[in-house]
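PT: before anyone asks, these are the final sequences, not the draft ones from last week. 718 residues across everything. Please model them as a single complex and drop the result in this thread when it's through.
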Amino acid sequence: MSDGTLPAPHPSHARGGPLQGAVPLVGWGRTAPTRAALVPVHGDDDVRAAVLAATGRGVVARGLARSYGDAAQNAGGTVLDMTTSARVLHADLESGLVDVEAGISLDELMNRFVPQGFFVPVTPGTRLVTVGGAIAADIHGKNHHVAGSFGQHVRWLDLLTADGQVRRVSPESDPDLFWATVGGMGLTGVVLRAQVQMKAIESSRCLVDTDRTPDLDSLMTLLAETDHLYEYSVAWIDTLAKGRRMGRSVVTRGRFAKLDELPAKRRTDPLGYHGSVKASVPDVFPPGLLNLATVAAFNELWYRKAPKLKRDQLQSIPTFFHPLDAVGGWNRIYGPRGFVQYQVTVPFGQEEAMREVLDRLSSFGTASFLAVLKRFGPGNPGMLSYPSPGWTLALDIPVMKGLAGLLDSLDEVVIAATGRTYLAKDSRVRPETFEKMYDRLDDFRAVRKQVDPDGVFTSDLARRLGL
Amino acid sequence: MIDALGSPSSLLLVGGTSDIAVATAHRYLAERPLRVVVAARDTPRRSAVAAELTAAGAKVQVVDFDADDPASPGRMVAEAAAAGDIDIAVVAFGLLGSADQLRTDATAVARLAQVNYVAPTVVGTELANQMRQQGHGVIVALSSVAGERPRASNFVYGSTKAGLDAFYSGLADSLVGTGVSVLVVRPGFVRSKMTEGLDDAPLATTPEAVAEAIVTGIRKDRHTVWVPGAMRWVMSGLRHTPRALFRRLPI
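LR: through. Structure below.
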């Protein structure tokens, strides 16, 4: 556990005391710390013992803590550190089906299986997430429009429920429990193991096309017209560009290269792969360094340096999928007050709402780096799964005065457009607003009531939103 | 839970009829609806506050609290927490007393010390116990600039606030690492029902300004706030004024 635990000022808290091993925990945004007993998990028995011993404050599982908000925090209760349970149990290199423990990271899956010709079915912008977390948040990636989200590539999962039983749940055996768990933010039980369908690749290189678009209209048109030609697609928007240039973007889209598409010198080692953290942000980052001037200069440079149009450029997996993973602890650059990520989606046909959200964020003048815009394909039956057909926008915003009111009012725009917010990113939505965003929330609550009648599984997020 | 941007879902007002407590609730309610627990003696004023906050969008729960009753704080905190976590508790009860009476009336001094110092320490201990168990929460304690350096004109009141201030400042340090934090608020002269009929002191402020300072202080994770902010420098000067001179100042 190296991320998201704040140093405990009193070492005595780490040993003994009323909450044994209690530490302050935060999410990736480093906001709203709360204290919980963090229990490392080395097998089913550890999980069962913690669940059966749970007090009124309950239990939740935590992976690599890449949720921005409070999903993997549980104030006053127990938090299970799943990263100590991270083995590959079985791998079928014919079919690409791998059985893994839930604490294994996508990073480790890539290290193991890319050289053997398999990539993870879905990856978000960081590979430092666990399989358990990927299921709980039903994460999506640049290939959502063709491949859907992570849950659609899970064949079964072993779920330890509140009664201490381990159930093997598949979409066929128990669709309700499966689709409540996929996207269920860890509130149906603890995912111990899962079988994941990996994706066959011939090389570890991507063929990438880059386009620059001068404004939001041209961006949306480009994505709508040609996204279907690409397996992976994403657009990075300069949120500080205003007026005529609002929404100016760099679009990168691509697919994995086939063996015969590689240059001759690469064909000897087509599946070579090195994912590593190259540098780290120091723990104390000067808070004044990120301001409108420096961020605007960065965004300008970034836009100018991108080619106007480039085709079939070979890029590595980290460069194409996980550019920020090269910098360890980049979440520290926003300073001690932390930051939030605002990620929302609105259906196709509600482009005006997306424009209004982006416009108001741009004119608010936060020193935000780039926003990400993407088109989602069809959703899945996950009751709290985030993706649904439409546009999704995500951007990081440092905590600042007036932000709470601004985001509350943007939520109103999103609700009016029948859109929703992404729980894995959320740290501030109003509970009554959230109620209006997920029409299958009652189904989710019904499943939870059945498998966890006493509410053993809970989290700060669950308390905050009254899930 | 208090969210990433410092917005709580519940607020406990201990001394729920105090103008500063009510103004703080209104300040939060202007942003979002939330659960507000009004802890006070059963008076018409309490019912009026409950009605007023309900009208402003709060889900109000009323709980009995009597600063003269040693058993009351424990009961009050338990009742307030029964319906869910207490995200923020504002300890806002207190008496100003009559300086003339307090100079000679020992019974009145004992009562003032009970209400302004003893009861707040008991309440603070009960709140800290509850919030330690929750693993999160913020306690806001209403101190006063009068506690910074008690002066002859109202030293009994000043001494109780000095004690309260010391208690909550120490409590804050003892809670580091528990997820619970304490905000000590030191207002100057506040125009409120407590000071009705008195002449304004220099740098006089309002319950609304104190509420604003509380909300901002919590958002910025502060441990102490002065209202108005300039009071900090004024009191810093007064604190270091030689006693012979301080005694003669018309304050």
